[in-house]
Amino acid sequence: MAGRPTAEYLRLYALEGFLLRLSISAHRERFVLKGGVLLAAHDLRRPTTDVDVAALRTANDVEDVRRLVVEVAALAAPVDDGLVFDLNAVTAAAIRDEDEYAGVRVRLVAQLATAREPFHVDVNVGDPIWPAPAEVELPRLLEGDPPIVLRGYPVEMVVAEKVVTALQRGLASTRWRDFGDLYLLTGRVAFTAGVVREAIVAVAEYRRVELEGLDGVLAGYGEVGQRGWLAWRARVALTDVLPESFADVVAAVVAFADPVLDGGVADVVVWRPAEREWRG
């Protein structure tokens, strides 16, 4: 995180403050962390403007979800972090910008001294989670602060949702962050093929997506998406960890996903992140 813009630190500090309160709240077991913030638990961070969670045992009702989020934001931190959430400024609305995503977006404002930082909490309702959620530790921005412990998406489900979204959107996709996340995660995590396959099947069945290889679906996408990829990569200041060539990124994602999608690797085969290949 060294060298990042000050505004980004303030945004992450606000998100961290909300998650700290969630970790001590009565709703801790109900919300499962996903999205960009979760990547920090895997020693990866990218700029993000929101908290992304899945809600268990929760109706997809705007006012009910808003009430739960307000109850979390109203809590005092275990140790004063200087943050105050403006409970009078909280608004909520159904998420309608992504067909594959059902839920509620709750907008909040965090205040730190004289600075006011708006952000939102996206609450996803109904999507399957497989394997089961696990405890994750989120490192803090301030050195010496203990990690925030929450329930989080299994990393297999993180990649499964992104792979299925790539299948759904094909060449029309502008979700550069999905490809960036897939590239970074597959360069770090030793996945097991069978677990990834079951997670992908769970997502695809829920979204009613027919599984096929990404190689055909994304044919030519490296060239089509190059300009958008470069703009996003520069905007989020990840030029030091992500390739300049989007075709290289797409090829790396296909090399990971297609042997799982087409059954070319047995369930017990393990992904080798350093070599970026499946090996028994």
UniProtKB/TrEMBL annotation:
Domain of life: Bacteria
Key word Transferase present: yes
Keyword presence, Transferase: yes
GO molecular function, one term: transferase activity
Pfam families: AbiEii
InterPro entries tied to this protein: AbiEii
Keywords, comma-separated and alphabetical: Transferase
Protein name: Nucleotidyl transferase AbiEii/AbiGii toxin family protein
